[in-house]
Amino acid sequence: MNQRNAQPSRKAAPFLHCVELSHSVGRTPILDSITLDVAEGELVVISGPSGAGKTSLLRLIAGLERPASGTIEIAGREVSSPRHVVAPASRGVAMVFEQAALWPHLTAEQHLALVLLGKRMEANARRERIGRLLDRLRLTPLRRRFPHELSAGERHRVALARSLVLSPRLLLLDEPLAHLDVHLAADLAALLIELHRDEHLTTLCVMHRPEGVNPAVSRYVILENGRLVQSGSEAEVFRAPRTEFVAALARTLRSKG
Question: Is 198 buried (19+), middle (13-18) or exposed (0-12) by CB count in 10 A?
Fold first, then answer.
């Protein structure tokens, strides 16, 4: 190759670009100058102690809160700043809340149908999309059941299907394995990894403590007292912890290994 004519390689622009994000509730600071880049297709686990600001960060990215300072860009488009916030429905983002937040009067299938109501889709295409997701998340035999007739793991799967039915480009998961027993948590974790791989979804997953190191996870991001204290691969974060909390996480993961 003619070195004189060789062009320098350009790093791809991040799919999610958060710059100096700060957020407060009243006079209480929640997040302090968070800067985070996520590439398209990454699976990023965000961990930290209670009150570290993990859920608040997801809510800012989803557009449910406005930052006090800083900006958020998704796919090169500014969606949040102190002066300008794009509506959540216009971001291509889906968020699954810790408590699933299902509507008690709707069946599993009706949850997906309601989200698609008013969208310009032919009836056959709508039915096909709903059927595919119900099947993909092993909900087809449960499609006519109401939330009170479902287990905790099944309710989480309905909430996930409801979030995916609009084909988001960015998926935000807030403590998806919380309140599940060991077997249900392992089952749902395997399903989430499978979905991420097959759908190539850019995914941010909040967990108080990682359930275990998984090769599908691109990066671990650690928040503490509203600040991003460490970010990197499993080796970079848990083999060289910078704070006592990160060191405690590392010890927990080693004990599970």
Answer: exposed
pLDDT in tens, the chain (257 residues): 444 444 444 567 899 999 999 999 888 899 999 999 999 999 999 998 888 999 999 999 999 999 999 999 999 999 999 888 999 989 999 999 888 789 999 999 999 999 998 788 888 998 999 999 999 999 999 999 999 999 888 998 999 999 999 889 999 999 888 777 777 778 888 888 888 888 888 999 998 776 655 778 889 999 999 999 999 988 888 888 888 888 888 887 766 65
Domain extent for 119: 105-167
Specify the number of domains making up the chain. 1
Is residue 146 in a domain? yes
Q: Does 231 reside within a domain?
A: no
Q: What pTM was computed for the model?
A: 0.87
Tokens matching residue 161 = 């299907």
Any residues with CB less than 8 A from the CB of 98 and at least 6 apart, and which?
55, 174, 175, 176, 178, 179
